[in-house]
Amino acid sequence: MDPFKNMQDWKKNMDHFFGENFWGEFEGILKPQIPQVNMYQGDNEVTCIFNIPGLKDSKSIDVIVDYATLEVRGIISVQNPSRQVVKEEILQGSFDRKLDLPFPVRSDKIDGTYQNGLLFITLYRLITKESNKNRVPIRIRDK
């Protein structure tokens, strides 16, 4: 007898009762997002520190900045194929983290370093001298 068969049946019944997307709302609670990240804000910069163990090649990770959003994509893999797993607590697998930044950042000045399993990304505030205000000329038409 498969002990997990009843679990699958129970999940299907819950999906039927609550709707198919019911479990998706709990995903962040049941399975934490990877990689974990800390964000620190200064006056004109923000530093994000990502926990990414085992990174050996910088080409295996993508860091994308778009105005006030930072996206980091890659794969965390710390497997030891020559040994049998006894306990596994380090979250692994492919990831795609998108973070809303506290302010718009420059796309031409970004610092990224990787050391001791941590990816440091420092972004600098976008400061524009130009105002986005535009005076709209009004034409008066005669009837």
Describe the structure in your own words.
By secondary structure, the protein is mostly beta strands. It has two domains: 1-31, no CATH class; 32-125, Immunoglobulin-like (Sandwich), CATH 2.60.40. It is built from two helices and seven strands, in the order ααβββββββ. The protein has helices spanning 5-18, 27-30; strands spanning 37-41, 45-51, 62-66, 69-76, 93-100, 105-115, 118-125. Strands 1-2-7-6 form a four-stranded antiparallel sheet, with no helix packed on it. It has a three-stranded antiparallel sheet with strand order 3-4-5, with no helix packed on it. A hairpin with a 2-residue loop joins strand 3 and strand 4. The longest helix is centred in the first third of the chain and has 14 residues, at 5-18. The model has no long low-confidence stretch (mean pLDDT 81). InterPro entries: A-crystallin/Hsp20_dom (IPR002068), HSP20-like_chaperone (IPR008978). This is HSP20 family protein. Residues 28-141 form the SHSP domain.
Primary descriptors:
flat, single chain, mainly beta, 2 domains, 13% helix
What is the strand and helix layout of this fold?
Layout: H1 5-18, H2 27-30, E1 37-41, E2 45-51, E3 62-66, E4 69-76, E5 93-100, E6 105-115, E7 118-125
Domain SHSP: 28-141
Protein name: HSP20 family protein
Organism: Salirhabdus euzebyi
